[in-house]
Known about the structure:
By secondary structure, the protein is an alpha+beta fold.
Amino acid sequence: MAIKISYLFLKTLSISKNLQLFATDGFEFNENSPIKAVGTLYFIKKNGRITTQKIDDIKSKIKLFNLPQKLDINIFTSDNKPLYILPAL
């Protein structure tokens, strides 16, 4: 739900203020480590594809999110529609 509300807010702001909106996935900022989804499910990115996978022993695989001092524009795209992977709960 938060993704939908954030997208609506940012898209409305983009249209009303005539701003260009860019997006990238979170894997660019955590060294491509798994991202918590629900329970023991984690989002993983392999070969450019994001899926969910059940992982029980995860502590050693998770990296912290870090923003670089300077953003690389090449990792961003103007295709910024939300990617809904998990079904509605």
